Structures are given as C-alpha cells and as structure tokens.
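Page 37, top half.
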Amino acid sequence: MKNIIFILLLSTTIFAQTSALSIYEESQKALSEGNLELAGEKVKAAIDLDKTNDTFRKEFDRLNGLRNKMINANRSVQDGRFDDAITGFSDVIASVPNAVEAYYGTAKAYEGKKDFTSAVKYYKQSLSIDPNYKKSKISISNVAKKLYNSANKDYKNGNLESALSKYEQVLGINSRLYQAYFQMGVLQKKMGNLSLAIQNYQSALSIKKTFDKGWYNLGLAYKENGDINNAKESFEETVRLNKKYYKAHKSLGEIFIDLEKYENAILSFKTAINIKPNYGAAYHAMGITYAKLEDYNRSAESLTKAVDLQPKEFLSWFHLAEAHNKLNDCEAAKEAALEAIDLKKNFGGGWFELGIAEYCGGKGSKNTSINHFEKARNDRDWRKMAEYEIDRVRNPEKYEG
C-alpha cells in the first residue's frame, strides 16, 4: 500500500514538474514575442506547479523587475520626465527586443521632447513587430498633424528653412498629404524658387486633382515664371472646378490681356465682379483693359470704382489720371494724379500724368508742367517719356503737322 502511495506521489510530482516546464517554455515563447505580461503570468503558473524550481523564481524576479521598469517609464512619460522614460524603456528593449509597448512608450517620450523624427522611428519599429498595433498608427498620424501645424506656424513667423524642413518630415511620414506639398509650393514661391514651387504644386495635384486652390497657385507660379499658356490652363481648370473662384477669374482676365484678347479679359473681370461686387482689383484691371481698347470713358468709369473700393492703390489713381487726360478732362486728371503722388511721391508716372494735365494740350501752364515732368524724369522708368514731353512743351513747333 505504501509503495502504491509513493508511486502515485512520485507520478504526481513528475507530472507537475513536466507541466511546469511546459508552461515555463510557453512563458519564454511569450517573451520572445514581446509579451512581457503574459510571460510573467506563465512563469508564476510554472512556480505554482513546481515551487522548488530556483530557475523559475529567478526568471519571475527578472520579469517582475522589467515590468516595474515599464510601469515607471510610463509614469515618467506622464510626468514629463522624458529622458528617464527613454532610459527605462531602453532597458526593457535590451532584454525583450520585441516589446511593442516599450517601443511605443519610447516614441511617446520622444514626441514629448518634440523630437518628431525619433518618435516616428520608434512608432514604426513597434509596427514592424505588430503591423496591427493601432495606437502607433494613430500616433503617427497625430505626429504628422503636429509637424504640419508647427511648420505652418514657422512659415507665418518667417522661419522659412525650419518650415521647409518640417514639411519634408511630414511627407516622410505621410507621402499622400497633399497639403504639405502645397505649403512647400507656397514657401518655395516666396523664396523665389519658382521651378520647385511648380513641382510641389504639381505633386499636390497629382494626389488631389480637384484641389482648386492648388490649380490657382500653380497658375500664379506659371505666370510669374513667364509660362503664360500653362498659367492660362491652370486658371481655366480652377474656375472649371469652382465657378465662384473670383480671384481665378481675375487672374485669367490678366492672362487674356497678355494674349491681347481684351474682350475675353473684360468678360473674365465682369465674372469676377459678379461674384464679388466690391472687388477693386478686378475693376482696376478692367479699367486698364478698356484703355487698351481706347474706350477711355469705360476705363475712367471702372477706375473710379476701383479707387472708391481701394483708395490707397496709387496705380489705380495713376491709370485714372491717364484716362481723364485721354478724355481731355484736365481738372479730373490733376486730382487723380495728385492722389497717386500723395500715395507714392517717387513714382514718375504720377508726376508724368500731372504734367500732361497741367499742360492740358497747350491751354495750361508750360512752366508748371515742365516742373512736373522734371520730377517724373527722376524715375528712370519714366525718364525718356518725361524728356520727350519736356521737349514737346518747349518746342511745340517741332511736333506740329
């Protein structure tokens, strides 16, 4: 009977030890997969089956120490002690290379330090271990947004190089974020890099073809780069996508001026004004176009509206003076020219039109008009025209017949 009991006890012990060893092996497998919590639970279960096993106990103590490091590191992130957190998570990763939570925690710490490049690196490492780890996916998206907003802030504050670097980092995280390409285009245009601006606008539009603002800014860049045909196509695509885009209608009208399609230009300006009745820039451009058609009454009418809406725009006053001079309304021309001069005293065009108005086809003061032309002559852009008028006033007989 005693032998039977002994055999049963021995069998039970052997079975328990075998089961404990099997569970311990499961814990090591869990550990190799980066699951520290499950590994700890398995070791504890193994100890419960084989309480005398010193190896199990040492492993339990080691895993418990790593678990405490994880807890303390996560607490450090919450408390803003980011360097302490990084050190703690690093210790865990050294022992458990596939610890997804430790990589995620490290990324969170770097994000707290605003080291977004390192943060994304560790978020991506966690995803290389577990591609379905949702917290890292969400965090990467949030980092991209933070970087994008930070880049926009730098741009507004004039920190262009910093903004450019951050937009590039954003695209390194999410290459489909068309807004980052667009902002890089805006920035490059501001820096005078028109070719790069055009490339970035095109990249944005390759991702989102219906981005009307992208087409509009692409058109502006093409125009500034001297590519009138592509500018025209870009503005036409803008208004095709958004018929209410009044700025694009105005810009398209200016392209028609360059192409000497003045009637088309006027239609574009009228469309812009129908959308935005107080659009002074469109009235200004329409006034210039009517002058090219030598319809000076309509030119003066449009420019009068322009200066009503934008009284500080010296060029509108200048062109209004020009239109009044063409209509031989010398007093109205004087008033408009004086307004242009008050707004910009060194602008030769204002003095030139004031000289024309003062001379008034020979009915006014020659000396006063010459004085005005002399002031216009100080502006090198107006020098030749001013000298011609001075000679014409002094020697009218040369220009008769």
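Page 37, bottom half:
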Amino acid sequence: MPELPEVETVRRGLQPVMEGAKILVAEARRPDLRFPFQPDFVARLKGQVVTGLGRRAKYLMADLASGDVLLMHLGMSGSFRVIKPDNEAAPGEFHYPRAKDSTHDHVLFRMSSGADIIFNDPRRFGYMKVIARSALDEEPLLRGLGPEPLGNEFDAAMLARSCAGKTTSLKAALLDQRVVAGLGNIYVCEALHRSHLSPRRIAATLSTKKGETTDHAKRLVGAIHTVLNDAIKAGGSSLRDHRQTSGELGYFQHSFKVYDREGEKCSTPRCGGTVKRFTQNGRSTFWCPKCQK
C-alpha cells in the first residue's frame, strides 16, 4: 500500500491539473470500489471548482468551491493517469508496471484545465467519498488520526507523550495511525534503523518515568523527518503498483538501509552487522540486531 511519501508525490503530480480547474465531467463507471459510491457522488462533483488539493495521512483531499471535500484513497493498487491533448502521464510511477487495462478505469474527471484524470484500481481497495468540510471532524475515516509526521506540531515531546505507558513495541506504536498519521511499514523500518532503535523496544521508553522526553525520542523524530523528506524528494519508493504523475519511477528504494535487504551487510559505519527479517504484528520487519537497541 502506498505510504505518505507516495501519496504526497501523487498529490504534487495532480495539483497542476486539478487546482483552480472546474470538474466538467465526473464519471463513476461502477457502483463501488472498496465501498459503494454515494448516490449523489457525481452530482456533488460536476461543475465544481477544485480550490485546493491537500493530503491528510494517506488520503488525498480536494477542496471544492461548494464547501465539500473529495476524499480519495489509493488502496492497494489504485493509481491516477492524467491524459492531456499532447501527452499522458501517471502521478506516481513506482517499480512494477501500473495496470493499464482500461477495464479497471473506474473513475474519470474531465477538468477545465484540458486534462482527463482517470483512477485505475484492479483490486478495488481504493475509495472516494464526498464530505462536507464542516463534517470532516466527525468523518469516521479521518476521526482519531494522529498528527502529521511532517507537521509543525509533531516533535519528540509529542511522540513521547503519545507513547507514554504503552507496553506495545515501538514499531507497533509508530504504525498506529492514532499516534502519528501516514507512517507505514517501509518508512517505520527505515526510521528505526536510522535512529538505531530496535523495533522490539517498548514504546514507553521514549519517555522517562518522570515523563521527560528521552534522547531516543529526539533521534527517532529526526529520523522520521529525514526519511520522509528524502523519500518525497526522490519521488517515493518504486513498489508494487505505485507511480508518479510524470511517468518517472520513484527512486527512494535505492536508498533503503534495511527494508527488503535481508542478509545484506548493515550500512551503518563500523557496525559490521547483517540485516535480519522477522514477522511482527503480521508484517515483515527488517532491522540490524547489532546497532539497533
């Protein structure tokens, strides 16, 4: 599933053809994706100007002039294709070829910018929903999401407070969207390695018994910021079905330190350890037992 850097890459690819443009035509070519489309889904989109295109965690959010918001999630295999009179591009080109079978083109937006935006999703785990902006705080899909890891409010003290008293593993805590929104398996593995913290470490150790923030929390937040910013700059990671708008591949997978590198030597200078993999909470965890404590 695409994680925060991949979704942000897609947002930046769609922004030039969506923001400030009117939705001239909206088509839902089947009754549902992961969830059924609302009965008035098309009617609430047609003729609306997209005043802004943002992101919350792994969701794309298009603000409409009507006061509604179009919420979009890529799911496991969802991708967007932008068709202009002079070329075709895909917001988010990542490693494995994106499905090009038009039978999986489930949603189309024809924009006044001259672009057709097509959402293709072979596995149909993606979804779209139109929500009144005034009702976003009560939306079940968004309610309870933690802070954005690249937002100003997310710092070591906040993370330490969120993990205080948690007896779960540090990796499980970071994957909890209520603790921090948008992090997934890949970037949690990478951030833990860069901060030299074990994925098995108890989450509560990010603060002292007196509630003070530890150096562990400070290192971890710094690593999260670095790995996410580096991944966004690289266009995301080329994994499974995710692709950039420009049609280019994301390249951050070449910068992985531990993810999918089982059996390779640890890249930490003077470590000499070997990257291992184990299953944790049903997910593959990659780490170096020698330098991650």
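Margin note: The first strand starts at residue 23 and ends at 28.
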